[in-house]
Amino acid sequence: MALAMEQAHSDVLIIGAGHGGAQCAIVLRQAGFAGSVTLVGDEPVPPYERPPLSKDYLAGEKPAERLPIRPAAFWAERDVDLRLGCRIVAVEPDAHVAVDAAGGRHSYGTLVWATGGTPRRLACAGGDLAGVHCIRTRADVDALKAELGAAERVAIIGGGYIGLEAAAVLTKLDKAVTVIEALPRVLARVAGEALSRFYEAEHRAHGVSLRLGARVAALDGANGRISGVRLADGETVAADLAIVAVGIAPAVEPLIAAGAAGRDGVDVDPWCRTSLPDILAIGDCAAHVNRYVGEARIRLESVQNANDQAKVAAGVILGLDRRYDEVPWFWSNQYDLKLQTVGLSTGHDAVVLRGDPAERSFSLVYLRGGRVIALDCVNAVRDYVQGRALVAAAAAIDPALLGDAATPLKAMLAPTPHDAV
Fold first, then answer.
1. pLDDT digits over 290-338, tens only?
2. Cα 14 vs. chain centroid, distance in angstroms?
3. In 295-334, which residue ranges form alpha helices assigned H by DSSP?
4. How big is the CA angle at 366 (ends 365 and 368), to the nearest 5 degrees?
5. Would the pTM count as exceeding 0.85?
6. Is there a contact between 36 and 29 (Cβ–Cβ < 8 Å)?
7. Alpha-carbon distance 145 to 164, whole Å?
8. In whole angstroms, what separates CA 341 from the centre of its chain?
9. Taking the alpha carbons of 217, 147, 60, 238 in that order, is the dihedral positive or negative?
């Protein structure tokens, strides 16, 4: 029976058809890799862009046919074998085999694990009521959109990027939106207090109600459907629909069960190699040592990280000595505000403001030990573009100069001997 379930051998088997997995396959073919490449995804559709899901796809401004990372014919033309609707549940590293939920066995020469993560669910009562949604896949948003017409009041649990982006969209769709955040401010895990307070004011100005420092005790329901979110302080926020946006759990169980090192995600080295032979990991699920947070081991949940690690993994397969050492960057669109972040502000001990938040165009420069470690730029594209070099160089610059918005950031970095030539 096992032989009947055996699949064709792949020189490179990529598990996960999101940004990282798709990019790895693309780079391999662009570089002339002649071996067989198989891309396995648990969704029934070819690879597509994820960032629009909480923004213009939710808003109905970007149709599904504009989401694919590449046209449908691209994969066959590049001889990439797409295996869709296939979930890998186990890995046998000694046999070089991945096993899917139907018992199918997929053998490989090199395995690239690019599965991302699954949305964290609420552990309280009522989490399984109808009308409780998350935003991670296209199917998630399609299900959410199908119920929006009948909903007037929406509770969003989680005040991070996804929650706030959804709040901005749903407010424009004339929904009564309440954002519930357990921490004392929104974006608390990713930004400094000044940016949090700015976005709180913006959302309130657009009619969003905020509950900060509020913990969810239970979701109440009627006839099997959500009717409200009960908070620990006794308040109940009425809701016809709820979105749970409290982060993701890295999807690495099969690798950990097979013996891979890792706690929050699967551990990788600078070449994206796991502790298992011939198995690489990239993207949201890969925990790597990052110099932009003092050599701590972290996971980065971003398209930038997924794509850049995909290039590193492809390089390893191609026999190149590529290491992952990229400046992190992120973005978020809310209302008419474009937030662009470069670097990681974790552990900052000083913040410098450039520009005037009242004019809705400004930057926050984060310092640690007198050196630039990150920037949050709101409608300030020039600062974002030029600030990257300051973060990469960990530049030590006078805060008074940094705060002078009339002086371009690029003028603050000392020229290298090459620049002077």
1. 999 989 999 999 999 999 999 999 999 999 998 999 999 999 999 999 9
2. 19
3. 303-317
4. 145
5. yes
6. no
7. 17
8. 13
9. negative
